[in-house]
Structures are given as structure tokens and as C-alpha cells.
Write a structure and sequence with these properties.
Shape: globular
Strand order of the largest sheet: 2-1-5-7-6
Distance between the termini: 78 Å
Low-confidence stretches: 119-145
Strand content: 5-15%
Number of helices: 26
Mean pLDDT: 84
Radius of gyration: 27 Å
Number of strands: 7
Largest sheet: 5 strands, mixed
């Protein structure tokens, strides 16, 4: 059997490698050429293994198709990651395909034999896809430990949908042009760099020196834990922005796995698929995935925490209480918005009437643990993080925020979606014969209310992404709403998949409109700029002008190429103007082109990079001033190169100093880190 498997695999390898080579020969990038090659080889090997290797004579079933899809996708991911890693370290693409395929073959033979084509595998009952699994009657937990295969299958399908949406927006390979993306990427790189270069030394001193070189580090404004997570991938993945956008994509899709798990056990497979697909097609989810941000991880942690609290409320053991405390502390140390998990239990208690849990000593032990982990960090960094608040505390903000966030939820769900949510909430709270559904409704409603209340009180901003932690449960309520309707119409056992198809089509309308109306993500071509700058010998001071996203994009690309730490990036917004973290209280330091040139001389700037275009926002007065200075007759700079943006009617200009001047490091420190500069 293994010989037949190797033979089939060999032919599949020829298809894979041959198509990869052909597409690379047609100038398609190696990472992209591999995708259609894997898909075609996968289809061939499935048919060949079914009828030749394992000689399956029973009829094809939904169960077999689902299992094969899960195993094949998992094997493809393993194969692709090995391939990416080997190519990153300079291996010839065909050799990388060979080694990746060899490693995958040993795993996949047993996986296909035992999980896909095994005759001993228990068949699904004819109505399995319509009937929910039983819930532990003692604890009524929303998560149990069996049958993850179907949940993983739904998750992978939802991940594929989300991937397609991101490809349509050109979101995976356009660099880091979002306002905070560069900072998030650099924070992770800083931790990796410290661990590999200076572990055991003073981390604060190392971070200070790093910041002087690359002033987009922002640990303190944001907590550090997610950056530790990102840092781990610098040990595993190529040092480029694209692999980290793939990590971001995977994290953004993770809630779909838990959504599928929860809903399948309460209602069945079709409704699990409906909730998961609805989640990834809601505009907030789509918009969050476009950028490398913290909200995706926070959403996943809030969902896990809610389910853990539900388990603790039903059976308040110390282990479960400590688990909730640990998850809550993790969420807070990923992003400060995680403090909403301190509000969530009170809503859950009010909805369940389980007031006795407030008198349980385990609750206070868990709370004390969480506060001991996050309290010091929150107190020390509150002044820094609160500088990012765009509004003032008070009733006016509460009224404005509540109405704004409710309208945001309406625009994301659509009229039909809002109706489905209302029906789902009412249905889950009133179906007494299904205690697991009742608990799901209470838990979900508590999270939605906690999210809305917390962000209506804390005056950070009115961005709709702050509703992200409510979105998984809103998607669940939408699926429950459809289930309630078809159950009432007695269609649930006859046409659930037909209903699923129609419901997904309707619920996806806001998301599809979002994809249609949102401009594609554009590439500032900072990778090309950084490559050109890296050709300079010796130390260099590079001034970057543009949006915060442009600053972060260039800084990230410079870091990835600056192996000897010879570059110093200076932001024109710091050199030529003064403002707070969010760009408020903005004033110019200088007002003439001559004064700008003098400041550029003071910091010994060897190059100036200017990004301009209709979507380079916000636009400040110093940007016009520095362009005037660079074009001034007395300017010591000349235009070296202009790079046209991809998917954007804009340009990035690279100006180089005609005659180099000595590095003035203390002047650079006064701009990048004035607290550490002498005098």
C-alpha cells in the first residue's frame, strides 16, 4: 500500500513541481506559483489514492469529503510552510519543493489511511448534520473535547473565504502602510532582536538604543504580550512583511473555529457553518484583517474568556476561576481594551441570576491573580496610553459613543442581520428545553453589552473596530435567529443546507458591499526605497515624511535590511513639528525652507524620503514645507528616484544628499529621544 502511495505521490510531485517551475518561468513569484500547483496536485492525489492506493469501494460521502479536505489542507499548509522557510534561506525552489514534499509524505500516508479512507472509521448517521451533539449534562459547558475534525473543516473553509477577501483587497503583499502597523511589526522585531543579540543585558537600555535608530517602537502605549507572540515567528518565518500578514490572517480567522465548535454542539453542523461564515464576512472582521493590528487577537481572547467564565459559573472550581483570570490578564496585556473582561462577569451574573458566585472565595482569588499580573503594568503605563485618548471622559462622550457604536453595528449587520440577532437573542433565552442554547444566549448577550458599555465609557475613540469583541457572538445570534425561524416553520430537518446557502448570501451583503466600496490596499514601495538606501556605505540618517503609516512602512523595511544597525530614521513630524501621540496640539517648529535645510544639516541627514498621494493622510503643513526645501535652489539634495505606488495614484520620492557630511549622533538623539539627549 505504501508503495502505491509513493507512486501516486511521485506523480503528484511531478505535477506540483512542474507547474511551480512553469509558473516561475512565466515570472510569477515563487511563493505565489506554489498555490495553484498544490491545488492541482491535491485533486489528482485524492482521486488516485481513493481508487488506486486504498482501493475504496464504498460510495463517496460528505464525511469522507470533509475529512479529506481537512487532512489535505493541513498537509498543504505544512508543505507550504516548509517550502517558504527553505526558500527564505536561499534554497533553489525545486529543491525546496522536494524536501517539503518528502516531509509531508510520511505524515500524510498515515493521516489519509486512518482519518479519511479507513474502513473501520465510524460512519455518520444520516441526520448527523442536522442534529446537535449532546452537551455534558453536569456542567453544561459550551466546549467539550471530542470531534474537532468538523469544526476544523469549517474553520479552514472560513479561513479560505477570508483569504480570498484579503487577496481581492491586495492586503497581503502591500507592505505595512496602516497607521499603527509599522509599530506593531517593529515591537515584535525588537523583542526578537533583544533575545538573539543581547539577552541577559539591560532590556530598557537596549530598547532605548533601538528606538534612537528606529523611532516607531511603542511598547508602553500598547502592552507587550502580543509582541512576544509575534517575536516567536521571527525565529520561524522569513523576515519580511508578507509572512506576518499571513499570521495576522490566521489569527483573525481563529474565532471562526470556536464559533463553529460552540454552535455545532448546540444546533448542528449547518448552523455552525452559517455562524462561522457570517463572522468572517462581517465588515468589521474584514477591515480588521486588512491591517496588522491587535484587535484580532483581542477578539479571540475575549471569546475564549467568555466561554471559560460560562464554564466557571456553572461549576466554580478554582482551576476554572484561575483559567479565566489568566485569559483575562492575557487579553489586557495584549491590548488595554481587554479590561472589558472585568465588566463582562457582572452582566453574565445579572442575566443568569447567579449572584452566589460573588460570595465564592474562588472568584476573589482569581480576581486577585489577574490584578496582580496586570495591575502594575496598567498603573505605570496609564499616562502613556491615555495620551492616545481622543475624547474626554463624561456623559457627553457616553451618549455620543453609544449612538455611534450602535449605528456601526447596524451598518455591519444590515437590517436583516439586526432582525436575525434580535430573534436569536430572544430565541436562545426562551428555548427552555435546550439549556446549552440558553447559556449561549446569556453568555453572548453579556459580552455584547460589556463591549458596548466599556467602550462607551472609556473615551479612546469612536472607531467601529472597538466593537470587535462583540462580533463573534453577534454572528452566533444571527445563526440562532435563522434556526429559530426555520424551526418554527418546521424546515429544520428537511432543508438545512438550502437555508444555510440563502442565509449566508443575505448576511454577506454588508461584507460584499464593503469589499466593493473599499479601495484596494496600496503599496508605498518602501521595500525598494530601503533597498536603495542600503547601498550606501557607513552610517546614514534618513528622514521620512508622510503619514504615520508611511513612517512605519519605511522604518520596518529599513530595519529588515539594516543588519549592522547603521541607519537612523528620523520622522519629519518630530523634526519639523510638535504634537502629542495622536497628532493633536500640532505646531510647526520652523516656517521657512531655509530653516528646514538647516535642521536637516544639524542631524546630518543623508537622505529624505517623501510619500505623497490622495490617500496619504492626514496631511500636515510640514510636508509641504519639506518639499519646498528639497526643491529650493540652495538645497544640497537631488532627486535620486521616484517610485510609483501600486494600487494608488501616489508617489514616493527619494532625495539623496549630494555630498555626505559627518554623522551628528547627539543631534539625532535630541530629535528621536530628547529625554536621553545631553543638554
Amino acid at each position: 500500500m505504501f508503495i502505491r502511495f509513493i507512486l501516486v505521490g511521485g506523480i503528484g510531485f511531478c505535477i506540483d513541481a512542474g507547474l511551480t517551475y512553469l509558473l516561475i518561468h512565466l515570472t510569477i513569484k515563487p511563493w505565489l506559483a506554489r498555490v495553484p500547483a498544490i491545488l492541482l496536485a491535491m485533486i489528482f492525489t485524492w482521486l488516485a489514492n481513493r481508487y488506486f492506493t486504498y482501493k475504496v469501494d464504498k460510495a463517496r460521502t460528505v464525511s469522507e469529503a470533509m475529512n479529506y479536505s481537512i487532512v489535505a489542507l493541513m498537509m498543504a499548509i505544512i508543505n507550504y510552510l516548509i517550502y517558504l522557510l527553505l526558500v527564505r534561506f536561499g534554497m533553489w525552489p525545486l529543491a525546496a519543493v522536494t524536501l517539503a514534499t518528502a516531509g509531508q509524505t510520511l505524515i500524510s500516508f498515515h493521516a489519509y489511511r486512518h482519518f479519511v479512507f479507513s474502513v473501520a472509521k465510524i460512519k455518520m448517521t444520516s441526520d448527523y448534520s442536522q442534529q446537535p451533539e449532546s452537551i455534558n449534562p453536569e456542567t453544561n459547558e459550551l466546549i467539550v473535547s471530542k470531534s474537532w475534525y468538523y469544526d476544523v473543516g469549517i474553520f479552514l473553509a472560513a479561513l479560505a473565504v477570508l483569504t480570498g477577501a484579503m487577496i481581492s483587497l491586495n492586503a497581503l503583499n502591500s507592505g505595512l502602510s496602516g497607521s499603527d502597523e509599522g509599530s506593531h511589526f517593529l515591537n515584535g522585531y525588537l523583542i526578537w532582536s533583544y533575545l538573539t543579540e543581547a539577552f541577559g543585558q539591560n532590556p530598557l537600555a537596549y530598547a532605548t538604543d533601538f528606538y534612537i535608530h528606529y523611532p516607531k517602537i511603542s511598547i508602553g502605549h500598547w502592552p507587550p504580550l502580543y509582541y512576544v507572540f509575534l517575536a516567536s515567528f521571527f525565529f520561524l518565518l522569513p523576515h519580511a512583511t508578507f509572512p506576518f500578514m499571513l499570521v495576522n490572517l490566521f489569527v483573525a480567522a481563529l474565532p471562526a473555529l470556536l464559533i463553529a465548535r460552540v454552535v455545532r454542539q448546540a444546533l448542528g453542523l449547518p448552523w455552525a457553518a452559517l455562524a462561522a461564515f457570517t463572522y468572517v464576512l462581517i465588515p468589521i472582521t474584514l477591515n480588521n484583517t486588512v491591517y496588522l493590528m491587535l484587535d484580532q487577537a483581542l477578539t479571540c481572547l475575549c471569546l475564549i474568556a467568555a466561554l471559560q467564565w460560562s464554564a466557571y459559573a456553572k461549576e466554580p472550581t478554582l482551576k476554572r476561576g484561575l483559567a479565566y483570570a489568566a485569559i483575562t490578564a492575557t487579553a489586557i496585556l495584549v491590548k488595554g481594551n481587554g479590561w472589558l473582561l472585568g465588566v463582562f462577569p457582572f452582566f453574565h451574573i445579572a442575566l443568569t441570576g447567579n449572584w452566589r458566585i460573588l460570595f465564592n472565595w474562588r472568584t476573589y482569588v482569581a480576581g486577585t491573580l489577574a490584578l496582580s499580573i496586570v495591575g502594575v503594568w496598567t498603573v505605570v503605563t496609564f499616562k502613556i496610553s491615555s495620551d492616545g485618548f481622543n475624547y474626554a471622559w463624561g456623559l457627553d462622550y457616553f451618549i455620543l459613543a453609544t449612538s455611534t457604536f450602535l449605528l456601526a453595528l447596524y451598518s455591519n449587520l444590515g437590517l436583516v442581520g439586526v432582525i436575525a440577532v434580535c430573534v436569536g437573542i430572544a430565541g436562545s433565552l426562551s428555548v427552555k428545553e435546550r439549556p446549552e442554547l440558553l447559556e449561549m444566549g446569556r453568555t453572548g448577550l453579556a459580552m455584547v453589552l460589556a463591549t458596548l458599555l466599556f467602550h462607551s465609557i472609556v473615551p479612546v475613540d469612536l472607531d467601529q473596530r472597538y466593537m470587535s469583541s462583540a462580533i463573534p457572538f453577534l454572528a452566533i445570534f444571527m445563526a440562532i435567529g435563522v434556526w429559530v425561524c426555520v424551526r418554527r416553520w418546521q424546515m429544520v430537518n428537511s432543508r438545512p443546507w438550502s437555508v444555510l446557502t440563502v442565509a449566508i448570501a443575505i448576511f454577506s451583503i454588508p461584507g460584499l458591499l464593503f469589499l466593493e466600496s473599499r479601495p484596494d490596499r496600496f503599496d508605498l514601495r518602501m521595500d525598494l526605497v530601503a533597498a536603495q538606501l542600503n547601498k550606501q556605505s557607513g552610517s546614514r540618517v534618513v528622514v521620512i515624511d508622510g503619514s504615520p503609516g508611511a513612517e512605519g512602512a519605511l522604518t520596518a523595511e529599513v530595519v529588515l535590511r539594516d543588519l549592522g544597525r547603521k541607519s537612523y530614521v528620523v520622522r519629519s513630524s518630530q523634526l519639523l513639528a510638535k504634537s502629542d501621540f495622536m497628532g493633536n496640539r500640532y505646531t510647526l517648529r520652523v516656517n521657512t525652507p531655509e530653516a528646514v535645510l538647516s535642521l536637516l544639516d544639524d542631524i546630518s541627514s543623508s537622505a529624505v524620503v517623501v510619500a505623497e498621494g490622495p490617500f496619504i493622510k492626514p496631511h500636515f503643513a510640514h510636508s509641504d514645507l519639506i518639499l519646498s526645501a528639497l526643491k529650493h535652489p540652495s538645497s544640497p539634495y537631488q532627486l535620486k528616484q521616484t517610485y510609483l505606488h501600486h494600487q494608488h495614484n501616489g508617489k514616493t520620492h527619494l532625495y539623496m544628499r549630494k555630498t555626505p557630511i559627518p554623522l551628528q549622533l547627539e543631534a539625532v538623539k535630541r530629535v528621536n529621544f530628547p529625554e536621553k539627549a545631553p543638554g
